[in-house]
Write a structure and sequence with these properties.
The protein is of the alpha+beta class.
Length: 716
């Protein structure tokens, strides 16, 4: 006997699966009804809404109240974290927002920093605005300081998804619909009947009695009295149709005077078609005489059927075109504006043929004359493209972008012409202090453009999967700064950002300068200890990266080791623990210059790694003198980036240019002092009677003058 157990019957499995699906759907609907209670408190049930976008219709009994939907599948716009903000949005039948509920997000500024309730209140403020309103942060909606990008993305997510659903459900006109083609009234070519038929201006439908009889085969009217009464090849109807608004068609068929009169009678958005025929069947019939309705012809475009009444009808008294056949019926039908007819789209004229199937029954067969207007007669328009959110943001922040561009241009000039500026310390020193103040106030507190290690982690994760430029372009100030920093890393290293563009670093620098002027004692770590403490910030960076591989959100929480959010983004308006941490680091900087930047900052470590690829070494040193024996620059370097042997550690240098000022100072730098003394000695020798004459350096060019040779240091 076999030990295998028999499989359960198939119908039992199907019944069980159906029961589970039913219970699951009931549970999901109950949850959704609870979720939409703020926007539709009287809702009793939900039903799937028709359309491409996933939305549900909200009912109170059998009364439709509106629609509710999640934004992830409709308008997933990447926010600051690189991921969209998930929203539940409801709209009523007037296309007004009834609720905007946050379902989830991964915004770092909200995870640790700004209370979540502030974002919830901001989302609720979208009701009861209309979906077509242009909501602007700071105008229609209150901004959340420090979370500008987040709230901009949230608003665009709500409004864009709401507009799409409202348009699809017919609550508003579709803003992305392609505009209808327009007739080119300046295009006219004289033509005869044969030419107009040949180029498609006039389309023909020719039916024989045999074709019509065949169409009724298999219907109840197959054996109607009309069947077989005529020869199969005999013409049933020879029908022609054209679009008269086009001048090449209308003017040639009707003549100039009649065409102009017809165009004057048409209102905006109305169109005229010409229908002409001969044969045994009349396309007009007699229904329009009795009830004013043409029951044998109707136009159709897309899903719209266009019926004609006697008020839409005009007769063509005389055909003006040459070579036209003798047509027994010549008529004009007007398509009214409410049909939303697009002359650029294909349409058809339906001819209905009716035959009796019994004493009280009738069968209909429809024959279609298809029409597509020649492209030369119309002008088509490109469908409107929904403007990318980052484009709107860049346009709204034109002032900030211009001011930042000016500041970066000034900094670029300082870097490029540093060899000239360092010779004039009285110019460079106030220029640097002014730029540091600009960095703190404009880049930091006004524009909130403090770069962070979170940006690096987000960028690395986006490269690992789902990279999107839009998520980085959404904040123009951050994008421009990161682009500038990327270039400066290759040219000068990390020092340009750390020494000039970091708002928190600039705060520390300004505080230390003020402390030194007030003669606050400075504490310097011994170089051996200092050199080992450098590694601490790299360890912090690696730890944050390791945590981010498990959870980026968790890494963003640990990234609070950076005081940037407290001191810059939130302008010291935060809980006491964060506030004391930031103020403590700033206080330490008064005694030890930029201690946080030197030993803790993971952002500085993240910039130092790619900075090793820098292409140029702009900082000058005196070979054989700097470090051995001269230690002036090493002792005066405020961040201790110069080794005792005179080498500059570019990974730790903040590019303050103090060492370059000393390099050119002939009163303090020993090699420059010696050079100055030699020159002065030579000058005194030349001033004595019989001394050697000195000439300018350029005197040797093009003349026979010779320069006095000055002994070198080695010779001395």
């Amino acid at each position: 006997m076999s030990n295998r157990r028999s499989a359960p019957p198939l119908h039992a499995l199907s019944w069980l699966l159906g029961l589970l699906l039913l219970l699951g759907s009931l549970t999901a609907q109950a949850i959704e009804l609870e979720q939409i209670a703020p926007g539709f408190p009287e809702a009793t049930r939900l039903a799937e809404a028709e359309g491409e976008h996933p939305a549900k219709a909200v009912y109170a009994g059998e009364t439709l109240l509106g629609y509710v939907f999640e934004t992830d599948a409709i308008a997933p716009i990447p926010a600051y974290s690189g991921k969209p903000i998930s929203m539940l949005v409801g709209i009523d039948l007037e296309a007004r927002i009834t609720q905007a509920t946050i379902l989830g997000h991964e915004e770092p500024i909200m995870l640790v920093g700004i209370p979540e309730q502030r974002l919830v209140d901001y989302a609720d403020a979208h009701a009861p605005h209309h979906v077509n309103e242009r909501l602007r942060v700071g105008e229609n909606l209150d901004a959340i300081s420090g979370a500008t990008v987040t709230v901009i993305v949230l608003t665009e997510t709500v409004m864009r998804s709401a507009r799409r659903v409202a348009a699809e459900q017919g609550l508003i006109e579709d803003p992305l619909a392609t505009p209808p083609a327009e007739v080119r009234y300046d295009v006219f070519e004289p033509a005869d009947w044969e030419t107009l038929v040949g180029d498609g201006t006039i389309r023909r439908l020719h039916l024989t009695h045999g074709q019509v009889d065949e169409a009724f085969v298999g219907t109840a009217a197959e054996h109607a009295p009309e069947t077989g009464r005529h020869e199969p090849e005999q013409t049933f109807i020879d029908l022609y149709v054209t679009y008269l608004n086009a001048p090449t068609a209308g003017r040639n068929l009707l003549g100039d005077i009649v065409y102009e009169q017809l165009m004057e009678r048409l209102d905006e958005g109305e169109h005229a078609i010409g229908v002409m025929a001969r044969g045994d069947y009349s396309f007009k019939g007699s229904g329009y005489v009795r009830g004013g309705i043409f029951d044998r012809v109707e136009a159709a475009q897309g899903n719209t059927n266009i019926a004609f009444q006697d008020r839409d009808h005009r007769r063509i008294v005389r055909m003006a075109v040459e070579g036209a056949p003798r047509l027994t019926e010549r008529d004009i039908f007007i398509i009214r504006e409410e049909a939303e007819f697009d002359p650029g789209e294909p349409w058809e004229l339906g001819l209905l043929v009716r035959r009796a199937a019994g004493p009280l029954e009738t069968e209909f067969v429809r024959f279609n004359a298809h029409y597509s207007i020649p492209e030369a007669y119309i002008e088509r328009f490109e469908p409107p493209v929904e403007e990318a959110l980052w484009v709107q943001v860049w346009r709204d922040r034109t002032f900030q972008i211009v001011v930042l561009g000016i500041g970066l241009s000034v900094l670029t000039a300082i870097m490029l012409f540093q060899d000239v500026l360092v010779r004039y310390p009285r110019v460079l020193e106030p220029l640097r202090i002014g730029f540091l103040i600009y960095t703190v106030t404009f880049i930091g507190w006004y524009s909130l453009a403090q770069l962070s290690v979170v940006n690096i982690l987000t960028f690395v994760h986006s490269l690992m999967g789902g990279f999107s430029w839009e998520s980085f372009l959404i904040d123009p100030m951050m994008f421009i700064l990161w682009s500038f920093v990327a270039v400066t890393l290759l040219l000068w290293g990390r020092g340009v950002f750390c020494g000039w563009l970091c708002p928190f670093g600039a705060m520390q620098d300004l505080i230390n300068k003020a402390a030194r002027r007030l003669r606050v004692p400075q504490f310097e770590v011994p170089f051996a200890v200092h050199e080992r403490l450098w590694a601490l910030k790299y360890i912090i960076l690696l730890a944050l990266f390791a945590v981010s591989l498990h959870s980026l959100g968790q890494a963003e929480r640990y990234a609070e080791v950076e005081p940037f959010k407290t001191a810059v983004t939130m302008r010291f308006q935060r809980e006491w623990a964060f506030l004391l941490y930031a103020l403590g680091l700033l206080t330490i900087s008064a005694f030890t210059h930029k201690a946080y930047c030197r030993y803790i900052c993971p952002l500085g470590a993240g910039l130092a790694i790619p900075a090793r690829l820098r292409l140029f070494d702009w900082l000058k040193r005196h070979r054989g003198s700097c470090g051995t024996p001269c230690q002036i620059c090493a002792n005066e370097c405020e961040v201790a980036a110069i080794h005792p042997d005179g080498r500059i550690n570019a990974n730790e240098c903040h590019y303050c240019l103090d060492c370059q000022v000393t390099y050119h100072d002939d009163q303090r730098c020993p090699p420059m002092v010696k050079r100055r003394k030699r020159y002065e000695k030579a000058t005194r020798a030349s001033s004595k009677p019989g001394g050697v004459n000195l000439y300018p350096a350029d005197a040797a060019q093009g003349s026979g003058a010779k320069l006095q040779r000055i002994p070198t240091l080695q010779e001395e």
